[in-house]
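ok so I'm stuck.
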Amino acid sequence: MTIKLAIVGSGFGMYCLLPAFNKINNCKVVSICGKNSERMESYCKTFGIKRYNNWRQMLQKEKPDAVAIAVIPKYQFEIAKYSLENNIAVFAEKPLTISYDTSFELNELAKKAELPNMIDFEFPEIPEWKKVKEILETKLKDKISNINVDWTFLSYDLKNKIKSWKTDSKQGGGALSLVFSHTFYYLEYFLGPITDIQSNLCISKKSLNKGETTVDMVVKFQNNCIGNLHVDISNSENNHHVIEFNGKNEKLILQNHSKNLVDNFEIIFQEHDKIQKIKPDNYYKNINKSEDPRVKTVSLVAEKFINWCNTGISKKPDFEDGLRVQELIDKSKLNKI
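replied:
not stuck anymore, here's the structure
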């Protein structure tokens, strides 16, 4: 069955979600709702889809089976809720909403309606990340005692002095919701439930809306592993994303020292005095270098969503995961050092 999909969003929705879903068999993107621009008109012409200014009107006229949403988190709740109430499956961006209560409501609606629901946590789809997960579950099971995360870069909005929702915590921006939401998801993906959080949030002068730009955190996992975490989206001097898993005689490192957020990761495994670089077995296929680098990764999450729509078999990451991340975000705001 071919799933009819509509997209809401003229930023990430246009340049990433549209080409990502367009790659998937049994999926037909029929329309997009977003601001009019030459770039938008070009995308609509290239992909042969209609453009709307009003998302509600689009959903009523096109009657899609599913919708993919990439809007300001503050407004995602209303669109997702309307869609679920009208029997439309939902693919959402992170964070799911801006509060635990509204995220809980969406998750309950999705379960009650028994509709496919997914949230775009794409890092675990990267081949090197999958390989690290495999190593943790086989060679290093129950051996990791602590994990260190250091993720620093200069965000586009801070670099260009843009006053947008991405630097406004009240709208779902700021480093904690915008970036650390990914970190919360992948920490539990790798090591299981987090049971305790102590956090420190700092604001750079570069943040025009005063949204936090640096997150320093200590977490404890259910398996007693300790995490020391640092995320800084205001650092123009260095770009890196390094995750270190430490055991008594082992160290596993997943690292990327490039400006590309999803490519160029490498795996280093140290056991006693032996150090080796490990490569995953499978890499991406049919890469279009003219697209945003994230398209190929997001398309893997999108494919899971379309498969769920077609088979009725649930997939991860879903709204339950989005709700869990929102719970951890809220705890971080309460448990400040």
